[in-house]
Design goal:
Helices cover about 50% and strands about 15% of the residues. The longest helix has 17 residues. It starts with a strand and ends with a helix. The chain has nine helices and eight strands. With about 220 residues, it is of the alpha/beta class. It is an enzyme of class 2 (transferase). It comes from Anaerobutyricum hallii. InterPro entries: Cytidylate_kin, Cytidylate_kinase_dom, P-loop_NTPase.
């Protein structure tokens, strides 16, 4: 079994890149960020303060996340029996996920599920700590990043395309704050694994990034 780990900060394009590569090489794609977002959505719906670690930890046994795949092979995130794929990409969900994913009980709730997937299939998994924590023995590790300005512009364009009213400077501020929070958390902070290949996509197109990572994978096959 092969496993590819793609880590990196918010807005680096991990999910877009990972989905395309997995489809190209026939791997199962696992969006771990979506799993954490689903848990965050649960807390938002319950009106739970994400910073209240005891309450967050106490609720974890009541949260059940599974991944399913539709007829087109697209990942669907199931939260306590409900398909929440269409609800988890909102900004407030992402912000909550950055807070609650730092709680050990939240990470433990998903860790076994993520590792078990890697034992049974060729998978490509993206997140914040895949190469450093979830799959430390991954066949290939990539650290995908881009400058805060570039990531803010990409997010701004994405939101404007959806008709949302947004401010690019606020988006950049939020991205920088999210980076700081993810890199400084006590449990499995965001960082580049020692054996990960750095890919800075600031001046690269999506096809260029995809080709770069696939070429690295072909070196180890």
């Amino acid at each position: 079994m092969y496993s590819i780990a793609i880590d990196g900060p918010a807005g680096a394009g991990k999910s877009t890149i990972a989905k395309a590569i997995a489809e190209d090489i026939g791997f199962i794609y696992v969006d771990t960020g979506a799993m954490y977002r689903a848990i965050a959505l649960y807390f938002l719906r319950k009106g739970i303060d994400g910073h209240d670690r005891k309450l967050v930890a106490a609720e974890c046994p009541n949260i059940h996340i599974t991944l399913e795949y539709d007829e087109e092979g697209k990942q669907q995130v199931i939260l306590n029996g409900e398909n929440v794929t269409g609800y988890i990409r909102k900004e407030e969900v992402g912000k909550m996920a950055s807070v609650t994913s730092a709680v050990p009980e939240v990470r433990a709730a998903l860790l076994d599920l993520q590792r078990d997937m890697a034992k049974t299939s060729d998978i490509l998994m993206d997140g914040r700590d895949i190469g450093t924590n979830v799959l430390p023995d991954a066949s290939l590790k990539i650290y995908l990043t881009a400058s805060a300005d570039v990531r803010a512009k990409r997010r701004y364009d994405e939101l404007k395309e959806k008709g949302a009213d947004c401010d690019i400077e606020q988006i950049k501020t939020d991205i920088i704050a999210r980076d700081k929070q993810d890199m400084e958390r006590e449990i499995a902070p965001l960082c580049q694994a020692e054996d990960a290949i750095l890919v800075d996509s600031s001046d690269m197109s999506i096809p260029q990034v995809i080709d770069t990572i696939i070429s690295e994978f072909k070196k180890i096959k």
